[in-house]
Design brief:
The chain is an alpha/beta fold. It has helices at 16-29, 47-54, 81-86, 97-103, 107-119, 132-136, 140-152, 181-198, 201-206, 220-225, 241-254; strands at residues 4-9, 36-41, 60-64, 91-94, 123-128, 164-167, 209-212, 231-234. Helix 2 (47-54) links the parallel strand 2 and strand 3. Helix 1 runs parallel beside helix 11 and helix 5 packs across helix 7 (140-152). The structure holds phosphoenolpyruvate (PEP). Phosphoenolpyruvate binds at residues 9, 168, 173-174, 212-215, 233-237.
């Protein structure tokens, strides 16, 4: 069974105090549910206040939006895996398309980050996805395989079960134009088939593959009804308590994937 994972990527939104108030609101409205895991990924500056607001019994886990691969040292402005771990993070988003496009991140660096996360017992959520031009040129499958290979090649098999993949077509992020179910399902099949070429079949089967890109309370049900889609990485809709709680509640009504 693959437990559904609902991840809110807050990006560069909410101060530490706004974040704490928001978390108080959603935790009161969102009971724990065995088939669904929820994660919030606030900015680094709000991790401490969100951890305090979540408390020790919350159904919601803490995630970060990025890390640097070294543990410590002269890397001005960077944050390491041990720092995130110490703040109570369980997950870390890596390779988001905004980091690739705006900050020049490439697969080799993303692989180093992924290894650092795993070495410190953080669960990486690896984001991959094609641009509109790549899709229109018929290159979607190749792009997904290249990004997977670039980030995952050579990892030790005992660590791969901690990894989640997020399929996020770049053209669907923040545009209000989500992928169709058929487009998402086809990409998820490509991803799982490629994982099965690198990993034992049971590890590829057990890996959660999330969809991300303009997920809303209106489309989450149809997305999660597919046996290929194991959850969602959510940007805009996770910033509002009503929409995040609605999405998580719909996910809870669907439950784990066989
Ligand atoms: C994202 O940035 O990962 C994302 C999916 O954003 P949105 O939901 O706003 O499209």
């Amino acid at each position: 069974m693959r437990t559904i994972l609902i991840v809110g990527n807050w990006k560069m939104n909410k101060t530490a105090s706004e974040a704490a108030a928001f978390v108080h609101e959603i935790t009161h409205r969102l009971p724990a549910s065995p088939g669904v895991e929820c994660v919030v990924a606030p900015p680094f500056t709000a991790l401490e206040s969100v951890r305090a607001a979540l408390g020790s019994t919350s159904a919601i886990h803490l995630g970060a939006q990025n890390l640097f691969w070294e543990d410590r040292g002269a890397y001005t402005g960077e944050i390491s895996a041990p720092m995130l771990k110490d703040l109570g993070c369980r997950y870390v988003i890596l390779g988001h398309s905004e980091r690739r496009a705006l900050f020049g991140e490439q697969d080799d660096g993303i692989q180093k980050k992924l290894r650092a996360a795993l070495a410190h017992d953080l669960k990486p959520i690896l984001c991959i996805g094609e641009s509109l031009a790549q899709r229109e040129n018929g290159n979607t499958e190749d792009v997904l395989r290249q990004q997977l290979n670039g980030a995952l090649a050579g990892l030790s098999l005992h660590s791969v079960t901690a990894i989640t993949i997020a399929y996020e077509p770049v053209w669907a992020i923040g545009t209000g134009k989500a992928a169709t179910i058929d487009q998402a399902v086809a990409a998820h099949r490509t991803i799982r088939a490629f994982l099965a070429t690198m990993w034992p079949a049971n590890a590829a089967d057990a890996t959660r593959i999330l969809y991300g890109g303009s997920v809303t309370p209106q489309n989450i049900d149809a997305l999660l009804r597919s046996d290929q889609i194991d959850g969602a990485l959510i940007g805009g809709a996770c910033l509002h308590a009503d929409s995040f709680v609605t999405i998580a509640t719909i996910a809870q009504s669907i439950g784990a994937k066989p």
